[in-house]
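User: I'm new to structure prediction. If I give you an amino acid sequence, what do you actually give back? Let's try with this one:
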Amino acid sequence: MRAVILAAGEGQRLRPLTYTRPKHMIPVGGKPVLEHVINALKASGIEDILIVVNYMADVIKEYFGDGSKYGVKIKYVYQEKISGTAGAIFSAREYVNEPFLAINGDTLFSPDAIKLVIDKFCEESSDAVLAAVRISDPREFGVLKVKDGELIDIVEKPSKEVTGSLVNAGIYVFPTDIFSYIERTKLSERGELEITESIRLLLSENRRVSVVEISGESWLDIGRPWDLLEANARILAQIKQSILGDVEEGAHIKGPVFISEGALIRSGSYIEGPVFIGCGSDIGPNCYIRPYTSIGKNVRIGNACEIKNSILMDNVHVGHLSYIGDSIIGENCNLGAGSISANLRFDKKTVKMRVKGEVVDTGRVKLGVIMGDNVLTGVGALFMPGVTIGCNCWIGPNVIVYEDVPSNTILILEQQIRRKSIQ
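Assistant: Good question. You get back a string of structure tokens that encode the predicted 3D arrangement of the chain. For your 423 residues, that looks like this:
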């Protein structure tokens, strides 16, 4: 069976990280999200893959190539116009001639979840099968009405919270005639061609659509910046200890820590897994790297820094005496000495962030800064919980950032200094 991965979208809710990369290429646990999806497909027995691309397609193509490096065969199809999930699946119509698996490229799945959907399709005489997962707040998903394992209806993105709802998990097996239903699908009120509407057309003609419920532990939708921290934690929780780089005498490694070739851990550093450290990175001396931290390639973390539950992308430099907690730092950022990411409110309430212009409760008590690529900070820069810093910004020394900073911005603390001679 061929898998069609939907990876054409931009990911506006993940800005500023997606200004410089597709959302599917954001690294978690040392690898892009899309690589984890491909690995799950391979582990479930699928090696023939078609990736639907659009936004920054060349980044995806250059990284994965023909898939031989990853033990799979990959082809690409360009979606001319971003028009929703149905439009993305329709782009594959010339590339499939038998039932196929369709899967979201920005969601983490376990191989077992994928196998359940495929097995359900093979075992029963269903016209289509989709996976469902039970969540507490379904307002960003399609809520499924199910009876005896068969789909009755779908309510796309309901306006109010429905506790314990079954929602569309983004794994499907379709027959090839799904394309004729997509051609008849009308734009939703959100202006998109949504595959849930195409499925409803199937139901209207008494076609049988089966539903497989998967566990929440086998699925994670990555739609907002703080979801990346959860995804990173889930991936790191599965790693095994492997020390391929150099660890100086006096450094301490505790628990599952993956240290890539060419990495250097200097004396006095304490690394508490699960932690991933990419090749060429240089840590310490006297650093504390706490659990669920993912450090990319060629990262330099200076003397006496503490990093906790964070993602540091490639070529980041963290100056000495800095603290980074519950944060995401984009590529090529240079943080001056004493830079601090505050991650906890005084009142201990959950942190709020602005996403696509709206203030959203993240549900997290601890959340630091989300920083785009190529940001430079001066010594003593301080970032309040939940702020975002756009790409290519300069944050001057001793600046306290309380609000989001747009890309290509310079923040400088202006102060008047009076000089007076000593009599």
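You can read the tokens as a compact description of the fold. Here is one thing that stands out. The first strand starts at residue 3 and ends at 7.
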